[in-house]
Every structure is written in C-alpha cells, then in structure tokens.
Amino acid sequence: MGEIIFLVFFIVLCLLGFGESTTWKVLENDTSGGPAFWPRIIMAALILCCVIRIIMILRDKEEFRKKFVFLDLFYGHRGVFLLALVLYAVGIAVLGFLIATILFLNIIVSVMYYFARGTLGKPVFIAVRTVCLCAAAFGVYYFFDSILRIMVPTGIFGI
Amino acid sequence: MSNFLDALGSVMNPEVLLLILVGTFVGIIFGAIPGLNTPIAVALLLPFSYKLGTIPAVALLLGVYMGGISGGLVSAILLRIPGTAAAIATTFDGYPMTRKGLGAEAMAIGTFGSFIGGAFSAIVLAFLAAPLTKIAIQFGPWDYFGLMVFALSLVSALVGKNVLKGYISMLIGLFISCIGLSSLDGLTKRFTLGMYQLEGGVSMVILIIGIYAVPEILRAAGRLKEDVTTAHFEKKRFYVPGKENRGKKFWPLWLQSSIIGTFIGIMPGLGSSTGAMLSYTAAQKTSKEKEKFSTGCAEGIYASEVANNAVTGGALIPMLSLGIPGDSVTAIIMAALILQGISVGPLLFTQHPDLVYVIVLVTFLANLAMFVIQSLGIPLFARIVQVPRYYLLPLIVMCCAIGCISVNNRLFDFYLIIVLGILGYAMENNNYPLPPLLLGFILGSDTELYLRRSLMYYGSFGNCMKMFSAGTVLVIAAVVVTVVALAMKSETLMSRLRRKGSAGTGKK
After folding, report:
1. CA nearest neighbour of B274 among B180, B192, B152
2. A67 in B contact zone (CB under 8 Å)
3. Both A27 and A50 in a single domain?
C-alpha cells in the first residue's frame, strides 16, 4: 500500500506540473515545441509507468502486502540522526557554520556514542573528544574560508 | 618525431614532474571528499596556473583532472558515497567488497583499472585524435539525441531487477533535470515553485550527495551497534590487485571498457559518469558470470574505473582538434590554454605540434602518478572504514554540508540534500535503482536540447525517424533494448516459458 501512495504522489506531482506547463509561453518562431514540450513527454511517461506499476501491485497480492520501507526513517537512531541533520541545517542559518558545526559534532557524536556503547565515556575521554571535534570543525572552516576563500554562512554572531 | 622528442624533453623536467604529482594529489583529495569535485579543484587552481608557463600549467591542471576522476573511487568503495559522479558505478561492486572485508583489494583493483583506462586513452589521444574527431563531428543533434536515449534505456533496463522501476527512476531524474530555466530558449522558469534558488536548476553535486550520501548516512545511523567492517590487507608498501584479479581473463573487459570510455569521452557533454555506467551495463551483459555483478566482483569495479578514466583522454580529443571541450573540466583547461595565448582547435596541430605531444605525455604521466599515489595510500584510505560510525557519520555530514554550501555559496542546497536524501532513502530501500535517476538527471537537459534542435531542423519527430542516421538506429535500438529487457525480466513470462519447457520435456 505504501508504494501505491509513493507512486500516487508522483502522479499528482506530474498532474500539477501539467497544469503549470500550460502557463509557459512559446516564442512565435519556436518550432521545437516550446519549453513545455519535453517536460510534458516526461510527465506523461512517468504517469503511465506509475499507473502500470500500481495496476501490477493491485493484481499481485504478494506485492500488495509487501512493506514499503520508509517510515523507519523517522524512528529510533535514524530518526534522531535525521532530526539532528535538520537542526544542523537550521543552526547553520542562525548561528553560522562554525558554531553550528561545533555544536552538531559534539552533541551528535555524544548521543551516538551513548546509543552504541550505553555510556558517554570517562570525563577525560569526553574532554579529549570535544577538543578533537572542535579542532576538526576549525580545520575545515579555516581550509574553506581562508584558503579556498569560500564564503560560509556567518549567522547572527557574524562568525 | 622531433616534435615528440622536444615534448619529451619539456616534460622530463623536475618542475613539470613535480607539478604533475602535486596536481594529481590535489585531484585525488578533491575527488575523494564527497561534495568536492574535479571542476572545483581545476577552477581553484586556475589562478595559480596563470603564473606558470604553458607546459607547467598543463601539467598541473591535467594532473588534477586525472587524479580527481580516479579519487572518487576512494569514498565510493569504502563508504558507498561516490566522491564524483564518475564513481557511481564503482559503488555497485566496490562497496560490497568492502562489506566482505576486501576494501583494500577493491581499491587496488579500482586504482589499477583507472591506470589502464587512462593509459589507453592517452595512447588513443596520441594516434587517433584527428581521425576520431572527424567521426564525432559528423554527429548531428538527432544522433546525439539517439545516443542519449539509448544510454538512458540501456541503464534503466539493465540496472536493477525490475525494468519498470528502473524507468520510473530514470523519469524522476529527467523530471528533476527540467527544474530551472528552460534549456533552449532560457526564458521560462520551470517548476521553480517561485524560489529563485531553483532557477539555475539542481546542481549535480547536490543531487549526488542527496540521493547517495544522505540515505547511506541515515542507513548507517540505524546500524550503530553492528561491528565495524575491517579491511584485510597485507602489510606492504605498494598495492596491486591479487593474481586472481589481474590475469589475462580481464584483458577483453579492459579493452571493451577502455573503448567505451574513450568513445563517450569524445562525445561532448556525455561525461565520465555515462561512460562508466554504460561500460558497467555492457560488462554485465557480456559476462559469463552475470550473477556475480553487484555482489562485489572485480569485473564490476574494472568496468567502471577503466571506463571513467578512459573518458579523460577521450574528452581531450575534441578539445584539441576542434576546440570543443568534452566536459566541464576540459572547458576550464581550454580556458587556461587560451589565457596562455594558445589557440585551441585545428590550428593547434600546425602551430604547436609539440604541445599536443606534451598533453599526451602529461596525460600518461598523470595516470602513472595517480596509480603510484593511490597504491601507496591504500593502507591509509582503507583505515577509514575502521573508524567507528559515531565519529565517521557526523564528520561526513560536516564535509557534505561544506561541500553543498561551496557549490553555489548558499545554504539552500543543504536543505535540498535533506529532501533528496529522504527521496533516495525511500527509493533505494524499495528497489527503485538510483543510477537511472542520476543518469536521467545528468543527460536530461542535453537530451531535451538535442531533441528540440532536431525538431527545429527536421520539422517533426516523424521526419527525424525517416532519416537513415545513427540517431534513428539508436532510438530504435533503445526501444528494442527496453522490450527485450521487459520480456527477459518479466517473471510471468519467464515462469510460463519454464512451465512450457518442463511440459515439453515431460512429453518426451
């Protein structure tokens, strides 16, 4: 059933795309079909393939009962990591790359270390780990910002 | 002959040799880190090349090019995250070998294969540049369209177990490639949802990280308690593949992959990822042990790595002969030569024949340097998989984040990789193969461009098909491949045939 929802999502997306493509203008001297020509071919083909796949699933009971692997992404360790990833992305915008990276590395490494080993480790080990992770974040920041001259987000603190 | 000797004298200079080594090393590093790639490395080193002479500049940039294409295999084999698009097909068999504890051997195979492909294309560059270019120049937009449709159908039909799922995946890739300004007129904003960040389309680096790196990271995050894979390797200084993985039985495969890679390289715009994937599917098709593919076999790694490095020499052929760069990196290298006052194109062979030989020699030496550096570095690289996941995954995320941000200097791309990562996770875990999606994305805009140009030229699709040309043959071949693959992989049809077969035997 999950796969049918997944395929219906693409069918709806293509139908919306079809609707949008009607607003695209074609130049008078354009004899190639215009900007909507190619996307419409793709969307029509995608709808066709999805419909065939849905029919195949509905006709085959085994396929219909097969679990669609997707929701486990939001549970357990994976869910925590995905949440951390989203928070890291938001954190970069708010706090800047350097601060967000230092926080992300230290928090997520500690959490994952705990998940894997059931402990956070000895205080000395935690201190060494924190220093190493901060150094890694600084190293990457320095390499990209100062050597490669790539502008990284600075956030509200301007760092 | 005197030109060749002059070129040899110029290249066998400590400064040039050192620059080849430095360039190759930088290329490997940029290729190995997901998010960074060869065009970025070549573009970053371009300003330094102004200060150098023509030959040292060529040595530096070609070194980066050769190293970068091959460097992608490191993360592809060890982490299942292709460092570059060229290394996507390397993950199919490279990573399963790493999971078996044979990461070092897989890297040695990949490195050796890269050297073979690169050396082959350098030889082709030396002897066949002019005649091959004459063939390539006769390809019109309809022929290119046919070639791309054939490549798309071949990969979609043969990669994965279900042809329909392969096609859905490829069509999603083509759909994503439509996002942004339309390719021929550049006037219409397509599927941008009102976001100016999408007007330039989705960057290839972002898509690779999104659909390959993020799902793999999330999958690995769910397996924190599993034992870390150990890469078995004997303690030695220089790594070459084991005897069973470099015998005479591989020669036909090396030749086939080298020819495919070089040919794809000559075709402007197709690129090393297309070459590697076509070579992989061709190797799978021609192999006597098809079932071994995607389970961790040497043939799969060779097919991908030989072809993607063979593309490099091939891509230089139209650049040198016609002034048409084969890919984005050769475009930057061409710019570097123009800035040095060299006019690239047919006149190069008459005005600077020695420079052509210099490029051939540097291509060969850069491949040799890549082989030596990577073979020496295997023990170091192989230890990456031994790093516990709770350290490795956050550090990879950090590299991906900075890699994404560096592409367009904006954070939006990092949000995009999370969305694409969720899509990639859903697709891959439900047997929707990702390579067709990526190939669809890579070839999408060019396929549209060539189709629309053909329609403008011939008037209609029917008129195009009436033409007896390579394009028509390839479009028909694409349909045949799809139908045959559908028939071969259709479980219903196969079970019916099996039943008929057993009934027939029973009667006898």
Report:
1. B152
2. no
3. yes
